[in-house]
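Reply to dn_fold:

You asked what the input looked like. This is it:
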Amino acid sequence: MAVLGILPVVQSQLAHETQFAAAFAYLAQALKPGSPEHTRILAVKTGATERIELTGGAFALEQAYVSKPRAEGKYESHRKYIDLQAILAGEEWMEFTHVSRLVLKDDFSAERDVLFYQDLTAGSRLRVGPGEVAVFFPADAHMPSLAIAAPALVYKTVVKVPVRA
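and this is what came back:
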């Protein structure tokens, strides 16, 4: 199930999983104020996403966006990748639930590695702020980018780590 915490805690919980090495090395720099990665992410224009290739088939999506009302959110999950979502500035709600609790809404898009589901109002909710990392596995349907009180600017990076075959 999903994991949430500051990077050292998340690293300790997933230390036995070697597939996360590149993601953790990148996130250590991305979450470090003043680093080139941190500075680059904070320079992303609102509404834009920049893809950064990492090693081992992993990649990061560096983003800046305005969080959205819950009514505009969608539950999603992925088959090929594990999401590590890290907030650099701003905060948001992220809802999640096990995929077995949801009804599929759209067919799987292999190209985008995403499934979308019908809404469920009984999911769990995480408040994620600067320096925190949320990890969502293929069984974790998640609805990120939700406004806390009102829409606000968020700077985030989402690291996609390939699922082991």
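The radius of gyration is 15 Å.
Hope that clears it up.
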